[in-house]
Amino acid sequence: MTASERPAGGGLRIRARLRALYHGTSRTAVRFRLAVLVVDLAIIAFFIAAPLLRGDRLVFYVIDYVVAALLGADLLARALAYSDIKDWLKRPIVWVDLFILATLLFPAWLFNLGFLRVIRLWTLVNSEFFWRTVGRRYDDTRVEDTAKAVTALVTFVFVATGFVYTSFMGRYDGISGWVDALYFTVTSLTTTGYGDILLPGVWGRIVSIVIMLVGVTLFVRLGQTLLRPHKVRYPCDQCGLFLHDPDAVHCKACGNLLCIPDDGR
């Protein structure tokens, strides 16, 4: 083996190892992914608490760059673990994480967009990585659908709160802190409308309208997920119908005989 071949072989071994850790089913792989998820949750907690930590710039920047290093290392490892990096880059979730990384690397310039970092919570719960590790038993079930609906609602609340905070803090007396922004977002989202905080101007009315419309939509989606009849996901090999009643013997669309496995859920 020549000297030029050794690094390539070493690179292939590293990629194979990362692929086994990120996509494998061994106990070591599961433990590794659990550790990664714990780090992800800690990062999300920092994103949520960032407005409160902003007062102490030194502490904030230290934590910010540590989080950036962790997120950057995780993204690099995921890219190497993926079979085709070009295909990996086509995934929208990857670009969301890359944008979040940019806000961490350049906090002085992109801090006003830092509220978008909470989208990391949505990308985490909507990733197969999460359900393969923590929610394997509940993958492709109502639990997954409900968790995703709740996460979408919570993520929107924090994103909208961050937007109101960065856009109106210091420019309007009604928004004097992050809690005021959260309070306004929740009262608008639930269409309660106490009227004690009103965003000024046309721009403020547009923001209020968007929060109400999107909030109601997410609430409806969550309600539908909780109340609709339980279905199991099993594709019919004749017509392709994916959702069936748990005790279905025949496909409702084409009458094809089904053999839905019962795993005791």
UniProtKB/TrEMBL annotation:
One of its GO terms (molecular function) is voltage-gated potassium channel activity. The chain crosses the membrane at residues 34-53, 59-81, 93-111, 146-168, 202-223. Pfam families: Ion_trans_2 (PF07885). Residues 154-221 form the Potassium channel domain. Keywords: Membrane, Transmembrane, Transmembrane helix. One of its GO terms (cellular component) is membrane. InterPro entries: K_chnl_dom, K_chnl_volt-dep_EAG/ELK/ERG. This is Ion transport 2 domain protein.
